[in-house]
Specification:
- The structure is a single chain.
- The chain is of the alpha/beta class.
- The protein folds into three domains: 3-194, 3-Layer(aba) Sandwich (Rossmann fold); 226-281, Adenine nucleotide alpha hydrolases-like domains (SH3 type barrels), CATH 2.30.30; 288-389, Translation factors (Elongation Factor Tu (Ef-tu), domain 3, Beta Barrel).
- It is built from eight helices and 17 strands.
- The protein has helices at residues 3-9, 27-38, 61-76, 86-102, 109-128, 170-173, 185-194, 216-221; strands spanning 18-23, 42-49, 80-84, 133-135, 140-145, 148-153, 176-177, 229-232, 238-242, 265-271, 276-281, 289-300, 311-316, 324-332, 335-345, 352-359, 362-374.
- Strands 12-15-14-13-16-17 form a six-stranded antiparallel beta barrel. A five-stranded parallel sheet has the order 3-2-1-4-7, sandwiched between helices.
- Helix 2 links the parallel strand 1 and strand 2.
- The longest helix has 20 residues, at 109-128.
- It is globular.
- The model has no long low-confidence stretch (mean pLDDT 91).
Amino acid sequence: MDKLTKAKIGGRNPEDLTIVVGMSGGVDSSVTAALLKEWGFNVIGLFMKNWEEEDENGVCQASLEYEDVISVCEKLDIPYYSVEFIKEYRDNVFSHFVEEYKAGHTPNPDILCNREIKFKVFFDKAMELGADFMATGHYCQSAFVQGENRLIKGLDTNKDQSYFLYTNKDKILEKVLFPIGGMEKSEVRDVATKYDLSTAAKKDSTGICFIGERNFKNFLSNYIDFEEGDFVTLDGEVVGSHSGLSFYTLGQRKGLGLGGPGEPWYVVQKDNKQNRVIVERGEFHPAMYCDDLTATEPSWVSGSFPYELPLKCSAKVRYRQKDQECTIESINDGELKVSFKNPQRAVTPRQSIVFYIEMEGHHVCLGGALIKDPGPSYFERNLELPKGRIV
C-alpha cells in the first residue's frame, strides 16, 4: 500500500473499509480497483453514465465502456454497478458548455464535470452505498499537510490532473483516495498487464466525452446557430472568412484556412460584438502576450484564502502549460489581480488559472479561478517581447 493511502486510512484495517471506485472503462480506473483489492480493501466498482447519444457510427460509447468495466470487475472478482447522471450532466455541465460557446468562449467542461458530477453527485452515491472512501484513477494525490487535506500534483508530470480538480474542497478530499497518483503511466500499464486486465493496452481517451469521435463543428451546430464572419488583422484588413466565432480560440494556428507567403497566421483576439476573429502572423506576435490578468469566481481547496498578499507562487493558465512564476497581487470582491515573471501567451477569458505552491516537498494546488481579462498585450503597450523570457 502506498504511504499516502496508508496515512489517509489512519491505521484502520483495510478489510474493515469499503472503497467505491469510479470506473470509467479505462486502464487508470481499472488499475485503481486492482491495487485497492490487492491492498485488502472491500472494493466496489461503480460506473456512471452521463451521456446517452450515439456517435456518428451509431455506437453508444458509454455501453462499450461499461462492457470493459464489467470485464475488469469480473476479472478482479469485485461487485460492480452502473448509475445514471444524464439529467444532472445536461443541466449542470452540458448546458453551461453550450452557453459559454454561444458567448464566444472556449470552456473546459472537464473542470465542471469534476465539480458537479464526479465529486458531487457521484461522491454522494458512493457514500449512500456505504463507502468509507471513494477512489478515482486521477493522476493526482491528497495528503494531510500543515494541518489540512491538500490536493497535490501527481508524480507523473505529463499526466498530472490536479488542474482539473482545483474546485475540490478539503472536506471532500478527506474521503477520496488516488491510488495511482504516485505512479508513472508506464507503471500503471505494467500493473494492468500483471493482472491480465482487458484494458491494459487500451488507448487513453482524449477530447470531450460527449463528443467522442464526432466532428466537433458538426456536433456543436446541432445546438448553436453560427454566423460566418471575417478574419481581420489588427489594422482592419480582411484576410478571409470564418465559419463561426466560437470555433476559434486565442493562440490557435491550425484550422484557420489562411495561407499566403509569410509566417503562419494565429488568432490574437476575438471581437464578439462584430463577429470578427482578429489574426496576425507569427507565433511571437506581441498581441498574443501579456504580463498580467484578472480572474474571478475563485475556488480554494481549503475553502478560503489563508495567505498574506501579495503571494508569490506558480500557476497554469492552461492544462498542458508548465508552471509559471507569478504573484497574486490582490483579491478584492472576489476578483484576483495576478502578475507573471515571464510573458504569457494567449491568456484566454473563461479558461481557468490554477495556483500551486511548495509545501513540505509537495507541489500543492491552492485552487484557482476563471480568467476574466488578460492584461494589456505587449502590442497594446507598444513594447517588444523580452525574448529571453518566453518559455
